[in-house]
Amino acid sequence: MTPPEAPEDGKNQPRVKPPAASVCVPETLTVLKKRSDFLKAARARRQGTSSMMVQARKRAADEGTGIRVGFTCSKKVGNAVARNRAKRRLREAARAVLPAQGQDGWDYVLIGRAEVTAARPYEALLDDLRYALRKIHSARK
Q1: Other CB atoms within 10 A of residue 57 CB
Q2: pTM score, whole prediction
């Protein structure tokens, strides 16, 4: 017996999984995973906005080049669903803004805020990240 063919109207088509690259952060960004990297960023510059806190540090020359970024949300943001939603939105904002406005050799940590990060309009979220980067990079060294 042969399997039935899919209808011509496009319904009941098998779901096609997107390529892994579309789900990941672009090649210009590397994701921070070690706790020590997050702690180093926490001791460096920071800039708060209404929807997030951005911590940033310039790495030493021997630590490599490129832009590295980390994301975190505490339990104050909400349950696991709320935290993951906030982190997804922060990842998308980083994907859109950091390649253009982030600086090579810097680590950035984006921290979500309770109730605001998930609810803020996307364009406002992008503007908040741009503002924070401008303030961080224009601060005295």
Answers
A1: 20
A2: 0.77
